[in-house]
Design goal:
- By secondary structure, the protein is an alpha+beta fold.
- It is about 35% helix and about 15% strand.
- An 8-stranded mixed sheet has the order 1-8-7-4-5-6-2-3.
- β5 (about 120-125), α4 (about 135-140) and β6 form a beta-alpha-beta unit.
- The longest helix has 28 residues, at about 10-40.
- About 30% of the residues are buried.
């Protein structure tokens, strides 16, 4: 029987093993951080805010970027949601023939006014027919400080992922242009619950 002690791993091998574990640990942390940039918390914090006026709030999984769909401003210039990147965008799909849309519009105007000077933009996009264009423009004109936008092709509801279920539909995008939440149906956007949702998205920007 040999009187030599059992072979032990050399210091060099042990050192490299420890380095390997450390590298894997760093990689795991970077992966988690990278995932958080796309899906900050899986919508968890916003789900907790789905109550009261925001009870119907939904958070997308997986989240998607704003569609590259062209609509138009009051001057007829083409606009895309990407043009508002850097701001929290509260995109509302509406029409003058939609009763709930008309009822909630003053609260969206009040929401925009309450965030004056902060990176929050309410983008109310009309899907009215061409013959109702003047009516829609006049209606928004009564709800300053909202700007008028029109989707001439009336496709905005269908290019969303998933498509909007009906009107009104309000989609909230973070400052990175990624959808954070949406709400189908009328809501009071001056409510404390609505402010809590916008403040949460603004903070997580």
């Amino acid at each position: 029987m040999s009187d030599h002690p059992a072979a032990k791993p050399s210091g060099g091998i042990l050192k490299w093993a420890l380095w390997g574990v450390a590298v894997l640990g760093v990689a795991a942390v970077l992966y988690i951080m990278g995932s958080a940039l796309i899906k900050p918390d899986g919508g968890g914090s916003l789900k907790r805010l789905a109550k009261g006026e925001m009870a119907k709030l939904e958070t997308p999984l997986p989240p998607s970027r704003a569609p590259d769909h062209v609509f138009y401003d009051a001057g007829g210039q083409p606009v895309r949601l990407a043009d508002f990147k850097g701001q929290v965008v509260v995109m509302n799909i509406w029409a003058t023939w939609c009763g709930p849309c008309v009822l909630e519009m003053p609260t969206l105007a009040a929401l925009q006014k309450s965030y004056a000077g902060r990176p929050v933009k309410v983008v109310a996009i009309s899907v009215d027919r061409d013959q109702d264009l003047d009516k829609a423009r006049a209606f928004i004109g009564q709800h300053a400080p909202l700007d008028f936008y029109i989707d001439r092709e009336r496709k905005i509801s269908f290019v969303l992922s998933p498509p909007a279920a009906g009107m009104p539909t309000t989609v909230i995008y973070g400052r990175d242009g990624v959808e954070r939440a949406r709400l189908a149906g009328e809501a009071d956007w001056t409510s404390p619950e609505a402010r809590a949702v916008i403040d949460s998205v603004l903070a997580g920007g």
